[in-house]
């Protein structure tokens, strides 16, 4: 195995990525699990994930328009922090310009519940929506 540079895949411990103790309260679920919309720029959904690489974890935040299912904003970083989701949102806003009243739906993660992220939503007249716990 050493001569062929083959390594076994080691199962990694579960990592908690959400700490909601020091964030704002959750926003109401404006989508109510209705993920079918009739036109673009009515509702966006956002989520983050982490990818194991040889250099460590790579975090990815993505925003999709629910109507087209196209990626309209994304960001990558070696940290899962508020800046990651803010950058993805900035890209989505920049690409769509007229975003007044668009619902931006996410989970209750600490990055989405942060004051800085929520302020960015308010400053662009976006409506914050969050899934109920466990969804």
Protein described:
With 135 residues, the protein is an alpha/beta fold. It has a single domain, classed as Nucleotidyltransferase, domain 5. Helix content is 18%, strand content 27%. It contains 2 helices and 5 strands, in the order βββαβαβ. It has a 5-stranded mixed beta sheet. β1 and β2 form a beta hairpin.
Keywords:
2 helices; 5 strands; Nucleotidyltransferase, domain 5; alpha/beta; elongated; single chain; five-stranded mixed sheet; 135 residues
Contiguous helical run count:
2
How many angstroms separate the termini? Answer: 42 Å
Helix content: 10-25%
Number of strands: 5
The helix/strand series, from N terminus to C terminus, equals EEEHEHE
- What average pLDDT do the residues reach? 86
- Choose one word for the global shape: elongated
Per CATH, the superfamily is: Ribonuclease H-like superfamily/Ribonuclease H
Q: In percent terms, what proportion of residues is strand?
A: 25-35%
Q: Tell me the number of structural domains.
A: 1
Second CATH tier, the architecture: 2-Layer Sandwich
SS-derived structural category = alpha/beta
In the predicted model, the low-confidence regions spanning at least 5 consecutive residues are none
What does the radius of gyration come to?
Answer: 17 Å
CATH class descriptor name: Alpha Beta
How do the strands of the widest beta sheet line up side by side?
Answer: 3-2-1-4-5
Biggest β-sheet, characterized? 5 strands, mixed
**What name does the CATH topology carry?**
Nucleotidyltransferase, domain 5
